[in-house]
Amino acid sequence: MFACITLNNLPLSLRSVAYRGLRVLAIATLVTVHPSVNADDVNMLTVPPGFTIETLPFEVPKARQMALTDAGHLIIGTRKRSDVYAVKNALTSAKPEVVTLFDDLTMPSGVAIHDGDLYIAARSDILRVNNIDQSMVVNPPMDLVTDEFPKKSHHGWKYIKFDKDGMLYVPVGAPCNICLSDDPRFAAILRLNPNTGESQIIGQGIRNIVGMDWHPTTGDLWVSNNGRDMLGDDIPADELNVIPAKATQVGENAPHYGYPFVHSNAANLPAGIIDDPKFGDHKERPEIMVPAALRMQAHAAPIGMVFYTDQAFPPRYHHALFVAEHGSWNRSSKVGYQVSVMTTNPDGEVSYEPFVTGWLQGEDAWGRPNDVLVAPDGSLLISDDKAGVIYRVRYQGSAATVASSGPKNSEMN
Questions:
Q1: pLDDT tens digits, one per residue of 257-288
Q2: Is the distance from CB of 132 to CB of 113 less than 8 angstroms?
Q3: Could you please report the per-residue DSSP string of 388-402?
Q4: Which of 93, 162, 182, 242 could form a disulfide linkage to 293, CB 3.0–4.6 angstroms apart?
Q5: What is the reported pTM?
Q6: What pLDDT band is residue 175 in, cutting at 50, 70 and 90?
Q7: Taking 90 as the threshold, does the pLDDT of residue 346 lie above it?
Q8: Which residues contact 335 (CB under 8 A, 6 or more apart)?
């Protein structure tokens, strides 16, 4: 009698060795298989013609936001764990070392690098590790920038980014599905001075921002917004919102984007807003509210996003916006679970379409893309907090072969 031995039956040490040598050719996609990712599932990932996708050779369970240090070490936050990882020489080493910098923080999903220092958003706290490239050890010394953010865990995880002037942008999600809080910082985004810890609201009425980036030419701040639940499969639409670079009003006068009073209409319907059943006629409803810049399928859950400013991808992707759609959790049929891209053609027409797909097979999702980051070589990194891996997308074909990877699933307002 012979025993049937699969890779998953092997001890972890042997399984890692076996997987590292295994490569699978997917349709229009070159895929490197990784220990924590099933080979059959990875084989289903597809990208536009001319692109390849691979997993990097390390595991990072529950990986969320990513940041790259000056020396090329990859920092990765988590939400459902208490860990912050540092992967040494993540993009160049055949066997990168993964260091768990911290394992006892509260929802440390947000990470950012500024002037060589690492900043971590852990729910109510903003922490700093000075000179992170020289501090790649377990429990390095850290400073507390502020602990004054709300301590609510519901939508309490944060993604953070620095602007060109060295100010740190910190979103605070609504502490509920739908509510009106006495604390104006909820359902808002704040600009924080990392030297003083002082902050001010620059955008309000945005339910749950979990990703942001600045347009490379206009300087406008684009943010992802996850709409409210329990109104059905298709309303309200998830959104991309824009905070203009020229906006100067802050605090209670900062631009208001509607939550909890109104929401965007379904993405497949003409642009418009719908009143919230509970707060639509509330006395505090503002007279002026900024509509979404782009609507997408409800419950797709846009999270990490980045404008592409490198030259390694074909011209149609220059200044394109890549968005990680984390995927639905309470819809009758699943949506999202893909990386999409917003491009603008020479006539100014905007499209929003899938770029990497395959994590969702029918109603089975084996991965959940979470954040996107442009690497120094122009490749696109994607974190996956379900599979616990980082993917790398590269372009290796002819620009003439690059075509749209799928139908539009959004409406530009």
A1: 999 999 999 999 999 999 999 999 999 999 99
A2: yes
A3: TEEEEEEE-S-GGG-
A4: 242
A5: 0.87
A6: very high
A7: no
A8: 297, 298, 299, 300, 325, 327, 328
Residues 6+ apart with CB under 8 A from 5: none
Per-residue pLDDT tens for 105-124?
999 999 999 999 999 999 99
Q: What is the mean pLDDT of the chain?
A: 88
Distance in angstroms (rounded) separating the CA atoms of residues 89 and 106:
26
| Greater model confidence, 16 or 301 | 301
Burial class of residue 186 (count of CB atoms within 10 Å of its CB; 0-12, 13-18, 19+): buried
User: What is the DSSP secondary structure assignment for residue 323, as one 8-state letter?
Assistant: E
The whole-angstrom separation of Cα 47 and Cα 393 is: 8
> What does the alpha-carbon distance between residue 178 and residue 274 come to, in Å, rounded to a whole number?
14
The token pair that represents 48 in the structure block: 């536009």
Angle at 264 between CA 224 and CA 294, to 5 degrees: 45
**Do residues 410 and 296 make contact, with C-beta atoms less than 8 angstroms apart?**
yes
pLDDT of residue 43: 78
Strands of the sheet containing 221-225, edge to edge, are 212-214, 221-225, 238-243, 294-296, 410-412
Element (H, E) at 129: strand 125-129
Spell out the domains of the chain, with CATH numbers in brackets: 7-412 (2.120.10.30)
Higher pLDDT, 44 or 228: 228
| pLDDT higher than 50, residue 181 | yes
Report the distance separating Cα 154 and Cα 211, nearest Å.
17
101-119 burial code (b ≥16 CB/10 A, e <16): bbeebebbbbbbbbeebbb
Instruction: Residue 376: count other Cβ atoms within 10 Å of its Cβ.
Output: 10
Cα–Cα distance for residue pair 235/265, rounded to 1 Å: 6
For residues 390 and 54, what is the distance between their CA atoms, to the nearest angstrom?
9
For residue 271, the 8-state DSSP code is: S
Structural tokens at position 91: 């993009």
b/e per residue 286-299 (b: at least 16 CB within 10 A)? eeeebbbbbbbbbb
Rounded to whole angstroms, the Cα distance separating 46 from 44 reads 6
**Amino acid 347: pLDDT:** 84
